[in-house]
Design goal:
Chain lengths: 337, 305
């Protein structure tokens, strides 16, 4: 079995807002092994970005984070002093953000920003750091890397900047990389390049990768495991094969109906959509969060909370009052294949 | 960078020329220089003689051209009251005002920037309110009033500081504080707003995600970007200070340009007034130019295209 990089148990993020307490992340648990890609999918506001920021301990100051367990390489990183956490950030785990246009400091050269990441955590000279930066810039597919070091962020395109960001997180050779929608702000043609690059680098450097996205096409291509989030909760998680071939939770089923499949979806036919809107996460909710949008919802769904239960296999969980067989049956009747 | 500097320099020269035209015209239209020069007891013929003698009967553009050509050679004419070359008088007086301006701006920056950074670090806390309070007092107190209070407290009661003249550097302490304090609130608030803005930016999150020490995040990544607008504002504030120096120099009997301007206005000493306005304007234009260069140094988006 591969080395365990990250263990998260019952992670919660709460943010006080004027109208009460916003339960943004409600008990999320998952694990990432070396060489494994975990994709967290879900629509905007489902808590996937906050989950990643919570792991990095980069939440806004007013947000409150709790968990039963948060371990990196088997070592507790929950509620440790900020200076110890700063030693870990950028060193043992790195993060790539959504906005490459604004994620680099406009006042410093690319080289300066790459080098400082390594110099901060390792006893290396500036020359050694520069060599590492050039090596990684070439790795992420940037030509004339050495001369790029003297360039400023505003001289680079969005795609190049995101490549620089990726190189920057790799400077210390972290065991885990969290990429929070790394391609959302990029052109469609660049998106695929960046994702393939991430997948390649992850294999080459044998890292754990958490890829946060709302693009299921992306997930299908790179994920080993998939974690579907809805309204602050994990509603289904399992191997990518399991989730894509036998989507169990009605929300996962609905999401997969929304994407066209080449050769299968007839030209001109309507793609699926999920009616309704995401519920507010302010205050307590004693019901299934998906109940007001679920086509199979009954009274029991609207009056009690639903726990995760085991699905088809031991490493497949979903959150529904129906059994996995009932869910599969529902899907079969909905889509006569 | 060189092209940017040359462009800014060209603009600076144009502004200086425009200022000189405006002052020249305003002073000519605001009264009859010949009558002022001839004195109160002068007859019609005397005034007419002065007008001819000093070439004041020529068309305004000709007079301006004549004055401008001489001014470029450092000849600003002669003071009709002091009977001395204006350039000599200015050379005597300008250093005092320049020292006062530099000290005032330094005081304002040394007080305002740390206060602004502190306020931004702890927004909406007691620290923020105290910092804002110190700044708001500066904005609410007219500088002449603040100057008089300081004179009473530190000059008359405590007898720590001299209240007039420019015999030693001690003479500059109170005038600099009075003049600089007035500029503090604007600089402090801009620093605070800039820091708040920058600290919530994506690249600060990136810096923290790299595990950089809070000190490095604050000074290397945040302050460098937050300070850019403050540089431009400081140049503008220094302009106000040069204007304010007329009042402050008069209160503290500092023999600078401000004091001279006040005296020359009373004496209708046209040549001197004209030269003072042009000197102060040139100084201000020079500082704006330097601020532009400093900004280009701080912000590569200006420097590197």
């Amino acid at each position: 079995m591969a080395e365990r990089i990250l263990s998260v148990d019952n992670l919660k993020v709460e943010i006080p807002v004027p109208s009460g307490m916003l339960h943004a992340v409600q008990g999320v648990s998952f694990k990432v092994d070396r060489g494994e890609t975990l994709c967290i999918v879900g629509e905007s506001g489902c808590g996937k970005s906050l989950t990643s920021l919570a792991i990095m301990d980069l939440l806004p100051t007013k947000a409150n984070r709790t968990a039963e367990r948060l371990e990196l390489h088997g070592k507790n990183v929950l509620d440790i002093p900020e200076d110890e956490m700063a030693d870990i950030r950028g060193n043992l785990m790195g993060m790539i953000f959504q906005e490459p246009m604004t994620s680099l400091n406009p006042a410093y050269t690319i080289g300066n920003q790459l080098e400082e990441a390594l110099i901060r955590h390792r006893k290396v000279s500036r020359d050694e750091a520069r060599d590492r930066a050039v090596y990684l810039l070439e790795k992420v597919g940037i030509t004339a890397a050495r001369s790029r070091l003297r360039q400023y962020p505003h001289q680079l395109s969005g795609g190049l900047r995101q490549r620089v960001m990726i190189a920057m997180t790799l400077m210390c050779g972290p065991g885990l990389i969290i990429a929070d929608e790394p391609t959302t702000a990029l052109d469609v043609t660049i998106q695929a390049q960046i994702l393939l690059l991430l997948a390649e680098l992850q294999k080459e450097f044998d890292m754990g990768l958490i890829l946060i996205t709302h693009d299921l096409g992306v997930v299908a291509r790179v994920a080993d495991r998939v974690c579907v989030m809805y309204a602050g909760q994990v509603v289904e998680q399992g191997s990518a094969k399991q989730v894509f071939e036998n989507p169990t939770h009605p929300y996962t089923q609905g999401l997969l109906e929304c994407i066209p499949i080449p050769g299968k979806t007839a030209r001109g036919s309507h793609l699926g959509s999920i009616p309704g809107i995401v519920p507010s996460l302010v205050g307590e909710m004693n019901c299934c969060h998906f109940s007001d949008r679920c086509p199979y919802a009954t009274d029991i769904c609207r009056t009690q909370t639903v726990d995760l239960r085991q699905g088809f296999t031991a490493d497949h969980d979903f959150r529904c009052v129906l059994t996995s067989e009932q869910c599969a049956e529902n899907l079969k009747q909905k889509v006569p294949a | 960078m060189l092209f940017y500097a040359l462009k800014r320099f060209g603009v600076a020269i144009l502004v200086a020329v425009a200022v000189s035209i405006v002052t020249f015209s305003l002073l000519r239209f605001s009264g009859d220089p010949a009558a002022a020069m001839a004195g109160e007891s002068a007859t019609e013929e005397d005034i007419e003689y002065v007008r001819k003698h000093y070439g004041l009967d020529r068309p305004l553009p000709v007079q301006y051209a004549d004055w401008a050509v001489k001014a470029m050679q450092g000849d600003f004419g002669e003071s009709i009251y002091l009977k001395r070359a204006v350039s000599g008088i200015l050379a005597d007086r300008a250093p005092t005002t320049m020292i006062l301006g530099a000290l005032s701006l330094s005081f304002a920056l040394i007080l305002a920037i740390p206060l602004g950074v502190l306020a931004a670090m702890f927004p909406n806390t007691l620290v923020d309110r105290v910092a804002l309070g110190i700044a708001v007092i500066g904005q609410a107190l007219p500088s002449f009033f603040f100057a008089l209070i300081m004179i009473i407290v530190f000059g008359v009661w405590l007898r720590w500081l001299p209240i007039s003249g420019h015999a030693s550097w001690l003479n500059f302490i109170m005038p600099s504080i009075a003049l600089g304090y007035y500029a503090t609130p604007a600089i402090m608030r801009l620093t605070r707003a800039g820091m708040m803005d920058v600290m919530s930016s994506d690249y600060i999150r990136t810096a923290r995600a790299k595990g950089l020490k809070p000190r490095v995040v604050l000074f290397k990544h945040a302050l460098r970007n937050a300070i850019i607008p403050v540089v431009s504002l400081s140049a503008v504030q220094l302009g106000f200070m040069l204007g304010g120096s007329i009042v402050i120099e008069t209160i503290f009997s500092l023999n600078g340009l401000g004091n001279l301007a006040w005296q020359s206005i009373q004496r209708s000493d046209f040549e001197v007034m004209q030269a003072i306005v042009l000197t102060i304007a040139s100084f201000y234009i020079l500082l704006t130019f330097l601020a532009d260069l400093l900004n280009a140094f701080l912000d590569p988006r200006i420097r590197v295209s």
